[in-house]
Fold this sequence. Notes:
Mean pLDDT: 84
Distance between the termini: 24 Å
Number of domains: 1
Shape: globular
Low-confidence stretches: 81-86, 88-113
Oligomer: single chain
Strand content: under 5%
Radius of gyration: 22 Å
Helix content: over 70%
Amino acid sequence: MNIFQSIILGIVQGAGEFLPISSSAHLIIVPRLFYFPDPGLSFDVALHTGTLIAVIFYFWRDWINIFKAALSNFQFSIFNFQSISNDSIFNSKKNTKYPPDSLRDSKRTGQIPDTRYSKNILYFLILATIPGVLAGYFLESYAESNFRSPLLIAFTLSIVGLILYLVDKYYKHRKSLNEISWLDSLAIGLSQAVAVIPGVSRSGATITTGLFLGLNRESAARFSFLLSTPIIFGAAVLKLPHLFSGGIDVQLIAGMLSAAISGYLAIRYLLKFIQKASYAIFFWYRLGIALLILLVYLIQ
Length: 300
């Protein structure tokens, strides 16, 4: 490939990974439509590394707050257990005082905590990651062969887009991110596992499920983006040797950087866009791409 083709595929990967339009479907269709040469596995790893850079760069502060919340919850559990034990032994109330939570700490330190993330959000993300990991491990070979049919991609693009449109329009979305439950996390994780099929879209499936469970638009998108971090990280690390085995060239660097930039912009502006608008535009886009795929398929 030349540098221009690398940049185009990087933009497709970065935007498609986080917008609910399916990056895998676009990476299959775009090279076929424009007769791009096969980029190879090392280039695919470079693109995923670029999207990993994007999501970490955007959410690094959020991840720090998430780990802080999990750590404070762990410390609280230990302190509470010790207080109960001491109280039962000495029959005294002096040890039953709870340690200050994040809100009390904010009064003492003058820092305002990030109240979007509950103390269990890290565990919810871990739970939701497991189905996707299992699906990727057992179904990856099918995803790279049997699931690449243009007709299947057209079908999944249109049907998942329609479900997203209906759920977004007719369901009530009142729950914030800190109200998510264990069952919600598991359901979103299972939907992420289905996204191994090209055209479903990892972000599309997880955002749709989040909306179906009552999360507001921003919370559903934010949980989806956070959930993408361990999945993309795991995939990039497992295939990292392929990136270096073929050698690093200008095309790989161009694709990685364009994926990182477009991915960052997709996250940033989608979170702003859905504060004022619905997900309807993505349904119409997916439907248009599905019809284009069918048209090209029938002509060929």
